[in-house]
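Field log, afternoon session.

UNIT: design team B
ACTIVITY: writing a sequence onto a fixed backbone
BACKBONE:
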């Protein structure tokens, strides 16, 4: 006796072929009923659903990073005070230095307001990078990182989303700062392409520096420490530079530090691209003579060094 739904043995016959319609039979509990296809009897259709879409590692990495970026942008939207206080401080610096100290600080070959604004822009993007460090320290304390670990996502997506959020915040701050500068008399005298290159250089430097601050945020024991720790780095970089005063007015030791300070190169490059150098002679130092190349090299070094360090640090602290 042949089992049900088994194909009949092939026999030579001159009769007409059987139709391709499936046969029906009474239900039975002895064997499961198999649905036949339209071409061959007994061919099962079980498991013929279309396969799920496949994702390559690069697509998954991009998708995870974009998801965490949206999370950080939503946090800014729901906490507008974060943006307000991030913008108020640079505005105060513009008004304080240009209106209070501007008459007392003389800059050879240039107006102090034109000299100042590039330094304020550089200070804004550098200070804005501290949000990455503070946010990482806070997420670690509140257990958000442990929640991310429970999700099937790329480990670096948290860091990418955090630094991308700082990039958006710095962009918004930059727009407001430029509007403030125009209000106090700052002007761009270069071409539109050079202006856009200067803005891009500022934002790219701020993005690279945010990885430095993210590593610092993961290295401290509590979020309360990150502010004091970050200012130990930020104040020498921004104030011992050419951001607010000419380098040649500094004492010898501070002048040497300022000449090789990456923030000084950033400020000099932005002044050059915005057309705010004036007629004062440029210091005969390679970093000041080639500020754009110096900044691009510094950005490359920061990304190559601190991105892997941040990912490694994140993996070690999230496995505690």
């Amino acid at each position: 006796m042949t089992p049900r739904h088994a194909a009949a043995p092939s026999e030579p016959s001159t009769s007409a072929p059987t139709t391709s319609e499936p046969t029906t039979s009474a239900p039975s509990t002895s064997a499961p009923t198999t649905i036949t296809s339209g071409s061959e009897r007994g061919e099962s259709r079980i498991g013929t659903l279309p396969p799920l879409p496949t994702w390559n590692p690069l697509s998954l990495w991009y998708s995870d990073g974009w998801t965490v970026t949206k999370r950080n942008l939503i946090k800014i939207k729901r906490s507008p005070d974060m943006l307000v206080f991030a913008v108020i401080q640079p505005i105060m610096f513009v008004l304080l230095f240009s209106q209070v100290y501007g008459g007392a600080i003389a800059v050879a070959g240039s107006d102090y307001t034109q000299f100042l604004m590039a330094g304020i822009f550089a200070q804004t993007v550098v200070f804005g990078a501290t949000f990455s460090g503070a946010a990482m320290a806070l997420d670690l304390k509140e257990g958000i990182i442990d929640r991310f670990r429970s999700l099937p996502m790329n480990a670096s997506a948290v860091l990418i989303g955090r630094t991308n959020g700082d990039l958006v915040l710095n962009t918004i701050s930059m727009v407001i700062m430029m509007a403030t500068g125009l209000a106090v008399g700052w002007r761009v005298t270069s071409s539109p392409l050079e202006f856009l290159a200067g803005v891009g250089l500022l934002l790219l430097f701020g993005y690279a520096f945010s990885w430095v601050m993210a590593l610092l945020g993961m290295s401290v024991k509590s979020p309360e420490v990150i502010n004091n720790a970050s200012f130990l780095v930020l104040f020498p970089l921004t104030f011992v530079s050419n951001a607010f005063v000419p380098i040649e007015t500094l004492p010898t030791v501070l002048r040497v530090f300022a000449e090789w300070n990456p923030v000084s190169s950033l400020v000099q490059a932005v002044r050059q691209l915005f057309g705010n150098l004036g007629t004062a002679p440029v210091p005969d130092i390679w970093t000041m003579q080639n500020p754009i190349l110096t900044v691009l090299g510094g950005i490359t070094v920061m990304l190559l060094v601190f991105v892997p360090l941040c990912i490694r640090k994140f993996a070690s602290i999230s496995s505690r």
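LOG NOTE: The first helix runs from residue 57 to 78.
NEXT ACTIVITY: expression trials, pending approval
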